[in-house]
């Protein structure tokens, strides 16, 4: 540890795990719970929306969303998320993490509720209003990515920082799980009170009028966990690293962290002033200095996140079609609308419970032992292997008796995504960039990821319908392989302070050394 390091930052780096760490994980994690719930629950209700709004009377098959409408409903929140990541990432460095944090949460709450209140029963009006509110919901969700990661990294100690940031991100798994469970409960309750025949018995009565409430309730539930954490978010102090290194207020940083850590921390305003005078690399994002020091790192974090999310979101969005293809979900004609929703939700919940959620917590347990880069390389490698294992003998997996093995392999791709690059691509950008650009660079990396998710949501709806599931899986395997290659651009932050990784420790050491020399020589500064 550098002896010239600011006292308040030293105190954070060496702090033992305390109650405030867990409080910060819960406050930031509930935002991620809501994020993932809102982004993934839409894939559960798309078939129900098709039955309600796009059934043609006299048709011998249930209504389904036109491909362009399905792509818009699935992808519009991702477009909003991309914009929100860039905007709020930048704003978090300009205004401070805490001030922006409450804005994103209220946006998520309001738009979650509004997306379930889409006006009219006319299909076009419902889709337009649903897409409008889900865009702005995504915009709020986008802000939560850079802010939650940055706040957690700046609050955490050096020894267990990776586990703390991973624990925040792991709440995404519980959000996906909750989406499935809420859909199971709501569809079961409505089915019990309003029984309906399968489509083959009565095409009209198989979709009860009350089904229009079901999808709205599922979407609106996402507002509840976010609302519960709003007060706590507003009570959190600004991070000491932002206050000291960006706002240059050492006194306030020391006061805030003295309360949080419950120890006496001496403010060092003179060291901050000296640092300001001597800082020779206070460079901006669009400078040659930034590119020389962090350019390849930003390319690495952005590219790996982009490639991962193409595969990850494609898997999530078309998993219900895979379940249908292997016979886990019976043909739509043999079910009522709510029965179909129940079975899609049950399948997704099973995958989340057996592979998605455990993968996240394996990362939490092992990231500070194995390191970020090893976990990311391992995750991409096994995702590539399992994708090819699914795709090459694809016909074999569709035969009776083999479907369960297909689902097991498919589950392993989710497990190694989450015990792998889905977690590490979120963690690393919050650790390797300077405090004054940390939120912005995380936002850029996350936005690259969402660009990949948009490719997945829009591109693979098209790919699946034109080249089929098998060749789609082969393409995803190739994408994962390239993700493994680009991981070599990413540095390993394990066991190092944020200032060591970003180069700010060098600035502090240089400033203090020069100050000491000048004082010894009798030079006034």
TrEMBL record:
<keyword id="KW-0769">Symport</keyword>
<feature type="transmembrane region" description="Helical">
    <location>
        <begin position="65"/>
        <end position="88"/>
    </location>
</feature>
<dbReference type="GO" id="GO:0016020">
    <property type="term" value="C:membrane"/>
</dbReference>
<feature type="transmembrane region" description="Helical">
    <location>
        <begin position="344"/>
        <end position="367"/>
    </location>
</feature>
<feature type="transmembrane region" description="Helical">
    <location>
        <begin position="20"/>
        <end position="45"/>
    </location>
</feature>
<feature type="domain" description="Major facilitator superfamily (MFS) profile">
    <location>
        <begin position="24"/>
        <end position="495"/>
    </location>
</feature>
<feature type="transmembrane region" description="Helical">
    <location>
        <begin position="379"/>
        <end position="397"/>
    </location>
</feature>
<feature type="transmembrane region" description="Helical">
    <location>
        <begin position="100"/>
        <end position="119"/>
    </location>
</feature>
<keyword id="KW-1133">Transmembrane helix</keyword>
<dbReference type="InterPro" id="IPR005828">
    <property type="entry name" value="MFS_sugar_transport-like"/>
</dbReference>
<dbReference type="GO" id="GO:0005315">
    <property type="term" value="F:phosphate transmembrane transporter activity"/>
</dbReference>
<feature type="transmembrane region" description="Helical">
    <location>
        <begin position="440"/>
        <end position="463"/>
    </location>
</feature>
<comment type="similarity">
    <text>Belongs to the major facilitator superfamily. Phosphate:H(+) symporter (TC 2.A.1.9) family.</text>
</comment>
<dbReference type="GO" id="GO:0009610">
    <property type="term" value="P:response to symbiotic fungus"/>
</dbReference>
<dbReference type="GO" id="GO:0036377">
    <property type="term" value="P:arbuscular mycorrhizal association"/>
</dbReference>
<dbReference type="InterPro" id="IPR036259">
    <property type="entry name" value="MFS_trans_sf"/>
</dbReference>
<feature type="region of interest" description="Disordered">
    <location>
        <begin position="497"/>
        <end position="525"/>
    </location>
</feature>
<keyword id="KW-0472">Membrane</keyword>
<dbReference type="InterPro" id="IPR020846">
    <property type="entry name" value="MFS_dom"/>
</dbReference>
<keyword id="KW-0592">Phosphate transport</keyword>
<feature type="transmembrane region" description="Helical">
    <location>
        <begin position="469"/>
        <end position="490"/>
    </location>
</feature>
<dbReference type="Pfam" id="PF00083">
    <property type="entry name" value="Sugar_tr"/>
</dbReference>
<dbReference type="GO" id="GO:0015293">
    <property type="term" value="F:symporter activity"/>
</dbReference>
<protein>
    <recommendedName>
        <fullName>Major facilitator superfamily (MFS) profile domain-containing protein</fullName>
    </recommendedName>
</protein>
<dbReference type="GO" id="GO:0031669">
    <property type="term" value="P:cellular response to nutrient levels"/>
</dbReference>
<feature type="transmembrane region" description="Helical">
    <location>
        <begin position="213"/>
        <end position="231"/>
    </location>
</feature>
<feature type="transmembrane region" description="Helical">
    <location>
        <begin position="403"/>
        <end position="428"/>
    </location>
</feature>
<keyword id="KW-0813">Transport</keyword>
<keyword id="KW-0812">Transmembrane</keyword>
<feature type="transmembrane region" description="Helical">
    <location>
        <begin position="125"/>
        <end position="143"/>
    </location>
</feature>
<feature type="compositionally biased region" description="Low complexity">
    <location>
        <begin position="510"/>
        <end position="525"/>
    </location>
</feature>
<dbReference type="GO" id="GO:0006817">
    <property type="term" value="P:phosphate ion transport"/>
</dbReference>
<dbReference type="InterPro" id="IPR004738">
    <property type="entry name" value="Phos_permease"/>
</dbReference>
<feature type="transmembrane region" description="Helical">
    <location>
        <begin position="164"/>
        <end position="193"/>
    </location>
</feature>
